[in-house]
Amino acid sequence: MRPLAGTRLRCGAWVIGCLLALPAARSLAATRVRSAAIAPLVALGIGDDEAAAVDQRLRRAAAGLPGLRWLAQPRLLRRLGAENAECFEDAACAGALARRLGLDLLVSGEVGGTGAAYVVYLQAHSARGGESRRARALLATQPGAQDVAAVGADERALLVHLLLPEQYVGTLAISVDAPEAWIYLDGRRVARGPQATLNGVAVGTHTLRIAHQAYHDALRFVHVAFAQQSTLAVRLQPLSLAVSAASSGGASASNAQGRTWPWYRRWWAVTAFGVLVAATATTTVLLLPHTVGRDREATVGLP
């Protein structure tokens, strides 16, 4: 019996040790550095030298992304450059290629030009297969230029959007001129008070609603940029203004009802005219004959 009891104790200790190590294993898996590579960009309507320049800009930006180890050996790049471009359009083919090269992640893409900016399309393929992620952006023809600042992005924003979507966020700072106002973002209540700073808001356009029982709701559309803080000040309209407007409208209606009408449109004139018409119709009916005349019959005797 003693050997059996010792075996049970060892099994129990092993199970407990595995359970205790599970959170640590998950943490290590989450922080594991993934190996990745960028295939040479395919030029669309631009020179190969321009495509190579954009490719280098992307590689420099990718070097600073956390959790990724970028491989840029000449042999690897030659292998990727010689690969059929159609393989990158198929998630299964690209995933198999990443596994053959010993990569966790493979990025491919195309670059074209619009004159004022480069149009970059990127795809991220996982070695485990599945659907590929896609992202696109306008990049200035010169790094740091502001010619496409309104609609463009930088290389880091594009790569974060593609590879680290959970970090593709910005900040929204809101100020309201009414205390205790509720703040809703995309239909979800997120804060209350005259001041609120929302961190980790996904990049893009969102619906903002401010609600307070003593004010009209305010609805706004706000755009959040990557790694930037968007500021919005909201002024609410008190409900008392609407009540005053309604009262003014009621007074106008009363004035309209108290207007002085001509004598023939007054109530007594209309009533008298109605009585006169009724009396005339009654008299006419009484004076008409009640029977319709007919020929009399007679017998005429012979003389």
What class would the helix/strand composition place it in?
A: alpha/beta
Mean pLDDT: 80
The run of helices and strands is HEEHEHHEEEHEEEEEEEHH
CATH names the topology of the domain at 33-167 as Rossmann fold
Counted by DSSP, the helix tally is 7
Major beta sheet summary: 6 strands, mixed
Helix content: 25-40%
Extended strand count:
13
Tertiary shape: elongated
Which class of the domain at 33-167 in CATH terms?
Alpha Beta
Under the CATH scheme, the architecture of the domain at 33-167 is: 3-Layer(aba) Sandwich
Topology at a glance:
Elements: H1 2-30, E1 34-38, E2 42-44, H2 48-62, E3 68-70, H3 74-82, H4 91-100, E4 105-113, E5 117-126, E6 133-140, H5 155-163, E7 169-176, E8 182-185, E9 188-192, E10 195-202, E11 204-212, E12 215-224, E13 229-234, H6 239-257, H7 267-287
What would a concise description of this structure say?
The chain is an alpha/beta fold.
Q: Mind explaining what this structure looks like?
A:
By secondary structure, the chain is an alpha/beta fold. Among the domains are: 33-167, Rossmann fold (3-Layer(aba) Sandwich), CATH 3.40.50; 169-239, Carboxypeptidase-like, regulatory domain (Immunoglobulin-like, Sandwich), CATH 2.60.40. 37% of the residues lie in helices and 29% in strands. The protein is built from 7 helices and 13 strands. Strands 1, 2, 3, 4, 5 and 6 form a 6-stranded mixed β-sheet that branches. It has a 4-stranded antiparallel β-sheet with strand order 9-8-11-12, with no helix packed on it. The protein has a 3-stranded mixed β-sheet with strand order 10-7-13, with no helix packed on it. A hairpin with a 2-residue loop joins β11 (204-212) and β12 (215-224).
